[in-house]
Design a protein that fits this description.
flat, 19 strands, about 40% helix, four-stranded mixed beta sheet, eight-stranded mixed beta sheet, alpha/beta, Rossmann fold, about 675 residues
């Protein structure tokens, strides 16, 4: 509405006057950005690679980014190497090497389990990629550096972490962490939670010193590091394929050890032999079914697609691929039945199951293969080159003899089809449906039986064989080791929600964790918490009897700095700075005069008073806990005003954690 003095037309005018002064809205403080590798990165066809995306649950993650990395468990597994000492009677494990593993999914799961809410995901690649520091300057950018650079364009994230970075070589690992710290310091709105390179338990003792030597001295107040790695409560599955061909003898130039050689007990050797048979059977049928299914990945889907093509355009040219698919599906069991390479072992249980199922005269192939032969011998179809000799193999087998006499009938075109060729093909499809259903059911049941036999044999082997059971237990434990950053940002989020970022994220137990990978005592933690040389503090995660796994450190990397020693102080300032900054956007281009200064001072003072009431800042009364100053001669000169600068000075006394509680006892005489 125009000014009252500018009114010129008679009438009644309404003028609304704001009843409340401007206020500061507190910014979110615990929205992490997870940067790493995922199974996929897509949302309704949109590629999410290097696109920071906000999610609020593990379901959101699996929808857009897929599941956790599934270690290669096939017969040619290359993800795991286990070294044992064959010279020692108990054949102990000397080392376990994980050649490929990703930590993004597990870290995110621990984030949610420990109180996390919303977070950003930045996928930098999929599980087929090689973990790389990458280059954010290329087009398109690559690797983890590209992920860190991508999240710089977003204002919401307040925490940075990249669990997969521990897989980099040392040079790339530390340069990536330095890049993240620089981004935090430049933007002044986020904080980095860093892991140490402890990819093996044996690497942990040297990891803190290596970290301190390589991380540098810049921007340390914007990050915190935690040690040791944690054992996840989510158990990891170990399969026979991870062991077979991947156990090496450390006392014999790391020569591969056949699993049968891990014991001289005939019963144990028999368990290994049975396991090998069932595993080969499962591998054989899985590979064959995959070949038959083709790109669709499903036998039913492949048949449905080929059938749909014939239905849409009923020609011999379209019918031929369908009949060839059905032919191959029918002939496949013959390639599985035998003792040659790539076939089922005739001494295995699965072979007997296949024979019994196939020869069942009511439901087996014995019933349906003759129907297929009869269909193909029909003179209306043999012109496509699908004569009965395609099934000559069935005549040669003893376990799947078709009836000696076959009745060949002519297809009768059914209404409402008028074209003879179309009618014959449509009728052929109807005749094929029950045959193909039976063939697919036979194959599916056989595959399920193969999986069941493999699981039974594997359980017997893993639970009975003394050496292999020990290897499995140690491998399962090693697979559950995970960097602590994911759980820690969950703690940050939980503490912020319950109290606020001014509360130190420490003396909190961790959920979904069975314990730290290394037990740290007081003496060891003393060297981590206080670094007398460079002041680079590393926070310990410790196990206490009766209390569980506890976060027992609250320092930034700048542990000797009186201003920024504590995580809670640094994050409180980040919150206040960003909240006040956003609130002051309202006053950009307002008159730089006493009226505006008073509004700004009042707005910020109200916000600071609220923080004092929440005990985020200390003092017996507000004026002793903070001050807000703005004005000519106080924070600004006339030159500042002439150049459009309004300078506000804010001071506050942050709450600092009681890190060391000293109890002083003295004796007094009896009164």
């Amino acid at each position: 509405m125009a000014s009252i003095t500018a009114l010129s037309t008679p009438g009644v005018y309404v003028q609304e006057v704001p009843g409340f002064p401007p206020s500061v809205a507190q910014v979110p403080t615990a929205i992490p950005a997870f940067i790493g590798y995922t199974e996929m990165a897509t949302n309704n066809g949109q590629n999410l690679t290097l696109v920071p995306t906000l999610i609020s649950s593990l379901l959101d993650y699996t929808t857009y980014y897929g599941a956790e990395y599934d270690l290669d468990s096939g017969s040619d597994s290359t993800d795991v190497t286990v070294q044992v000492n064959m010279q020692v009677p108990s054949i102990p494990v000397t080392s376990i090497t994980l050649k490929k593993i990703f930590y993004m999914y597990e870290s995110l799961r621990h984030f949610f389990d420990n109180g996390g809410g919303q977070c950003y995901i930045v996928s930098v690649g999929n599980y087929t990629d090689t973990v790389s520091a990458g280059d954010e300057t290329t087009t398109p950018p690559t690797g983890l550096r590209a992920g860190v650079a991508a999240v710089a364009q977003y204002n919401d994230p307040t925490l940075l972490l990249f669990p997969d970075a521990v897989l980099l070589d040392a040079g790339d690992f530390y340069s990536l962490q330095q890049m993240a710290l620089l981004q935090c310091a430049t933007l002044q709105d986020r904080f980095a939670v860093l892991d140490l390179q402890e990819t093996t338990v044996s690497a942990q003792p040297n990891a803190p010193q290596s970290f301190r030597n390589a991380i540098g001295i810049n921007n340390l107040e914007y990050g915190a590091a935690y040690t040791p790695w944690l054992y996840s409560a989510y158990s990891k599955t170990v399969t026979y394929g991870m062991l077979n061909g991947n156990v090496q003898d450390s006392s014999n130039s790391n020569a591969v050890v056949p699993l049968a050689n891990l014991s001289t007990d005939p019963n144990m050797i028999a368990l290994v032999t049975t396991m090998g048979i069932t595993n080969t059977d499962l591998t054989t049928i899985t590979a064959n079914v995959s070949t038959l299914a083709g790109a669709s990945g499903s036998l039913s889907a492949t048949y449905g697609a080929l059938r749909g093509t014939v239905m849409a355009t009923p020609t011999e040219a379209n019918m031929l691929p369908l009949m060839k698919f059905v032919n191959n599906l029918a002939m496949a069991p013959l390639t599985w039945a035998g003792t040659g390479a790539g076939s089922f072992n005739s001494s295995g249980s699965l072979y007997s199951d296949m024979v019994n199922s196939a020869t069942n005269q009511s439901t087996g192939l014995y019933k349906y293969i003759p129907l297929l032969i009869q269909l193909e011998e029909n003179t209306a179809l043999t012109g496509m080159g699908l004569a009965a000799e395609n099934f000559s193999g069935y005549d040669a087998t003893k376990w799947l003899q078709p009836p000696a006499t076959r009745t060949v009938s002519t297809f009768v075109p059914a209404a409402p089809f008028t074209g003879a060729t179309s009618a014959i093909l449509y009728t052929a499809l109807n005749a094929l449906d029950p045959i193909v259903t039976a063939l697919i059911n036979f194959t599916t049941n056989l595959q399920n039986a193969a999986a069941a036999y493999t699981n039974i044999a594997q359980n017997q082997l893993f639970n009975t064989h003394p050496v292999i059971s020990s290897i499995v237990a140690q491998l399962s434990t090693e697979l559950s080791r995970t960097p602590p950053s994911g759980a820690m940002v969950g703690v940050y989020a939980n503490v912020d929600s319950a109290i606020g970022p001014w509360k130190a994220p420490a003396n909190v137990s961790l959920n979904s964790i069975t314990g730290p990978s290394v037990i740290i005592d007081d003496t060891t933690q003393g060297g981590l918490n206080v670094d007398p040389i460079a002041g680079k503090s590393i926070n310990a995660i410790r196990s206490f009897t009766g209390r569980g796994t506890i976060v027992w450190g609250a320092r930034t990397l700048d542990g000797n700095d009186d201003n920024w020693r504590y995580i809670s102080v640094r994050r409180l300032y980040i919150m206040v700075e960003q909240s006040v900054k956003d609130a002051c956007q309202t006053f950009v281009f307002e008159p730089n005069d006493a009226t505006t200064w008073a509004k700004v001072q009042s707005m910020i003072s109200n916000y600071m008073t609220n923080l004092w009431r929440e005990q985020a800042i200390v003092g017996s009364k507000p004026e002793l806990s903070y001050y807000v100053s703005v004005g000519l001669g106080q924070t600004m000169s006339q030159d500042d005003i002439n150049n459009g600068r309004m300078i506000v000075e804010i001071g506050m006394a942050p709450v600092r954690p009681a890190e060391f509680i000293v109890l002083v006892f003295t004796q007094i005489q009896q009164q």
